[in-house]
Design a protein that fits this description.
two-stranded antiparallel ribbon, 0% helix, mainly beta, Lipocalin, 8-stranded antiparallel beta sheet
Length: 155
């Protein structure tokens, strides 16, 4: 039996959010962050035609797309080792009442370009996204890790 199957998964995440400091000191801040993680996932699976025990099997292709806006919230801490340089860490998550849950944690470094604009980069140390349908016939369980980059605007 010969078989050849290939798969592809593409995941784009956009994250607008808001952060409010409960404690603000000269060298550090402690606050709460709320954001909307907008996931756009596309996947495909392609299996080549083959013959199994003398029975021809046709080629199969399937694809699907999931767009999910997920609201999350949690604490964030920020340290200022230098005036324009900062380091942040957070833990965010939300439970979706039987349909799934989402938990993520990330650390970033940033540089203030102006009083109101900063550039940030870092690493998402892991996130877990579980989404289930009511019948449990279709679901997504995704763990991702990797680099991130973005702009921050302060008001």
């Amino acid at each position: 039996m010969n078989s050849l199957a290939t798969g592809n998964l593409r995941n784009l995440v956009l994250i607008p959010g808001y952060q409010y400091d409960f404690i603000r000191r000269k060298r550090w801040n402690l606050g709460a962050q709320v954001q909307l993680d907008i996931f756009d996932m596309t996947g495909s699976l392609n299996a080549a035609a083959q013959i199994n025990d003398g029975v021809p099997q046709t080629a199969v292709f399937s694809s699907g797309q999931l767009r999910a806006p997920l609201p999350v919230a949690g604490p964030e801490i920020r340290f200022y080792p230098a005036e324009r340089f900062f380091v942040t860490a957070n833990v965010l998550g939300m439970y979706f009442f039987g349909y799934g849950n989402f938990v993520s944690s990330q650390g970033t470094i940033g540089v203030k370009l102006t009083k109101n604009i900063a550039v940030r980069g870092g690493y998402q140390v892991g996130s877990r996204l579980n989404v289930n349908t009511t019948s449990n016939r279709l679901g997504v369980s995704l763990t991702q890790k990797g680099a991130l980059a973005g702009l921050e605007f302060s008001f």
